[in-house]
Specification:
mainly alpha; about 85% helix; about 0% strand; elongated
């Protein structure tokens, strides 16, 4: 817990502390993965997950063929294909899935701040 978190917690009254304890902390990794498939971009994340799964399976198959190849040109073709497919998986994950994780975290924190402001305004 950072110093800022301690300062914020010190300013909360007992009712706010009880509410935030009941609301829970950050979801775990699997909770965040499930959260990716909700909202307006859920279908897109499902499509990216299906594409990365297919690319990964294809990359592993090409890598297997690479290690089974007897000729250099055949090994080069399979190895290059495996590398391109597996790098494509990483690019899709880093470019679409991980930013959505971060955006969901930021949105959760903004909603918590909005809730605190609304509760302070109501008092």
């Amino acid at each position: 817990m950072s110093e800022l978190d301690r300062m914020i917690e010190a300013t909360l009254n007992e009712e706010d502390k009880a509410f935030f304890a009941k609301a829970g902390r950050e979801p775990g990794y699997f909770g965040e993965v499930v959260g990716l498939f909700g909202g307006t971009l859920g279908w897109m994340n499902a499509l990216v997950l299906a594409a990365t799964t297919a690319l990964f399976i294809g990359g592993v198959w090409c890598a297997w063929q690479f290690f089974q190849a007897e000729e250099a040109i055949s090994a080069l073709r399979w190895g290059l294909s495996a590398a391109v497919l597996l790098i494509s998986v990483v690019v899709l994950k880093v470019g679409t899935i991980w930013p959505t994780f971060q955006a969901n975290r930021v949105l959760r924190e903004i909603k918590r701040v909005e809730l605190q402001i609304a509760r302070r305004a109501a008092k």
